[in-house]
C-alpha cells in the first residue's frame, strides 16, 4: 500500500478534478430567446427560438391539448427556425418548442398560441412601431400595449437594435423586451440604419428572400416592405422590384413600409430649422423619387420611422397636398429611443405631430380603415378614418 500512495493518489486526485471540472464546464442546454413568430400566411407559420448550445429543434402544435402534430428538425442549431405547414386558414393553434441535449434531456418553453392569416373578407388589425433600440424598458411597455390590442401581426419600422453587428443586442434589445407579443404575434421588420445590414438580421428574421425587402398579402391588403438604406432610384434592382410588386397587386388597401421618411418636420436631421438662415428640405429628399411609384400605383399609406416621434401627413401627390388621390405618410418612430424635436414652425404637409413615445394600431374591414395612435401610457392622441 505504502509504495503506491503519493504518485497514485495525486494522479487519482488530478483525474477526478479534471473529470469533475469538465462535467461542470459543460453548460446545460437552455433556451436563451423566444419562441417568436415570423413570416406566416393562411396555411403556414414560422416559429423561431435560440438555445445556448447547438441542439435539434421540434415544435409540437395542435388546435387543442394534447398537441398531437409536430415538425422536427434533427440537425443541431442554435438559432432554430421551424416552419409549420398545411395549417387551416384563420385558425388558432397552440404550440410548444422543444430542443434536446446530447443526453436526451428536453428543454422547452410554455405553450403559446398563434393564429394563421385570415380570409380576404375578414376584418383584421395590425400594429406599427419602431426605433426602440437602446431602451428595452420603454420598448417592453410599447410591446405589451400592442399585444393588448390583439393584432394579427406587427410591423416594425426599424432600428430594433443599437448596433446590428453586436449579437447580444438582438436578444437584449429586440427579442426579450417584446417576448410576450412576439411569442403570439408575427413581426415584420423594415430594416433600419442601426441594423447595419448585419448578418445577425438575416439570422434572427425569416421573411421572403432577400429578406431586407419583401412583400406579403394579408386579408384584403398588400404590404410592400422596402430597404431604404439602399439607394431608391430608377434602374436600381429594388426600385424595379417595388414597381413590379405594386403594379401586380389588386388589393383593396396598399401599404408601403420603410425606415427613412420622405417627409418629416424633424428639427435638425434634414437641415437646421431653428437657424433661420439654413435651408431645410424637411425630410429625406433622396426618398422623394420612389414616392412617385406610390402615387402611380395608388398606395394608401406609407409607414416610416428613423425620427423618434410621430407625424402624420395630409394625403400627398408629387410634393403637394391632394385630398382626392394622395398618399398619407405616418412616421411612427417613438418606440423607445430618445425623442427628437420638431421644427419650430409648421410644415406644409403636416396634419398632426406628437412628441412622445408611441405606437399605432390599424383596424381594417373591407373598404373601411381606422388608424389609432397611442402614447406609452395607452392614451389615444390621434386617429384617422379612411373609406373607399
Ligand atoms: Fe432611430
Ligand atoms: Fe434610423
Q: What does this molecule look like?
A:
By secondary structure, the chain is of the alpha+beta class. It has 2 domains: 85 residues, Immunoglobulins (Immunoglobulin-like), CATH 2.60.40.10; 264 residues, Metallo-dependent phosphatases (Purple Acid Phosphatase, chain A, domain 2, 4-Layer Sandwich). It is built from 7 helices and 21 strands. Strands 10-11-12-13-17-14-18 form a 7-stranded mixed β-sheet, with helices on one face. Strands 1, 2, 3, 4, 5 and 6 form a 6-stranded antiparallel β-sheet that branches. The protein has a 6-stranded mixed β-sheet with strand order 9-8-7-19-20-21, with helices on one face. The longest helix is centred in the N-terminal third of the chain and has 21 residues. The protein is globular and about 70 Å long. It starts with a helix and ends with a strand. About 5% of the residues have low confidence. The structure holds fe (ii) ion (2 copies). The site of one fe (ii) ion has 6 residues, from loops.
Amino acid at each position: 500500500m505504502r509504495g503506491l500512495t503519493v504518485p497514485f493518489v495525486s494522479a487519482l486526485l488530478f483525474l477526478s478534478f479534471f473529470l469533475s471540472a469538465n462535467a461542470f464546464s459543460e453548460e446545460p442546454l437552455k433556451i436563451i430567446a423566444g419562441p417568436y413568430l415570423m413570416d406566416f400566411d393562411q396555411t403556414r407559420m414560422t416559429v423561431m427560438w435560440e438555445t445556448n448550445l447547438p441542439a435539434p429543434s421540434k415544435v409540437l402544435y395542435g388546435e387543442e391539448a394534447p398537441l398531437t402534430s409536430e415538425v422536427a428538425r434533427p440537425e443541431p442549431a442554435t438559432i432554430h427556425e421551424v416552419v409549420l405547414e398545411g395549417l387551416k386558414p384563420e385558425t388558432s393553434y397552440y404550440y410548444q418548442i422543444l430542443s434536446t441535449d446530447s443526453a436526451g434531456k428536453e428543454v422547452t418553453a410554455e405553450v403559446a398560441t398563434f393564429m394563421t392569416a385570415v380570409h380576404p373578407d375578414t376584418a383584421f388589425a395590425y400594429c406599427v412601431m419602431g426605433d426602440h433600440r437602446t431602451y428595452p424598458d420603454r420598448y417592453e411597455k410599447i410591446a405589451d400595449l400592442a399585444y393588448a390590442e390583439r393584432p394579427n401581426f406587427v410591423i416594425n419600422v426599424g432600428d430594433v437594435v443599437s448596433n446590428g453587428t453586436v449579437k447580444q443586442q438582438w436578444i437584449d434589445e429586440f427579442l426579450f423586451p417584446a417576448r410576450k407579443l412576439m411569442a403570439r404575434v408575427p413581426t415584420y421588420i423594415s430594416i433600419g440604419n442601426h441594423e447595419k445590414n448585419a448578418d445577425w438580421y438575416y439570422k434572427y428574421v425569416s421573411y421572403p428572400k432577400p429578406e431586407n425587402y419583401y412583400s406579403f398579402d394579408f386579408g384584403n391588403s398588400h404590404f410592400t416592405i422596402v430597404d431604404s438604406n439602399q439607394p431608391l432610384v430608377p434602374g436600381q434592382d429594388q426600385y424595379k422590384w417595388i414597381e413590379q410588386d405594386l403594379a401586380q397587386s389588386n388589393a383593396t388597401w396598399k401599404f408601403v413600409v420603410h425606415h427613412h421618411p420622405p417627409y418629416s418636420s424633424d428639427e435638425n436631421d434634414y437641415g437646421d430649422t431653428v437657424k433661420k438662415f439654413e435651408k431645410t428640405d424637411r425630410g429625406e429628399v433622396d426618398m422623394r423619387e420612389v414616392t412617385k411609384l406610390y402615387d402611380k400605383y395608388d398606395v394608401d399609406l406609407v409607414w416610416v420611422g428613423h425620427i423618434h416621434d410621430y407625424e402624420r401627413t395630409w394625403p400627398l401627390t408629387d410634393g403637394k397636398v391632394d385630398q382626392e388621390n394622395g398618399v398619407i405618410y405616418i412616421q411612427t418612430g417613438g418606440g423607445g429611443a430618445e425623442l427628437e424635436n420638431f421644427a419650430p414652425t409648421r410644415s406644409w404637409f403636416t396634419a398632426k405631430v406628437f412628441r412622445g413615445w408611441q405606437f399605432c394600431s390599424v383596424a381594417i374591414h373591407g373598404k373601411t380603415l381606422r388608424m389609432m395612435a397611442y402614447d406609452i401610457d395607452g392614451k389615444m392622441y390621434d386617429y384617422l378614418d379612411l373609406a373607399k
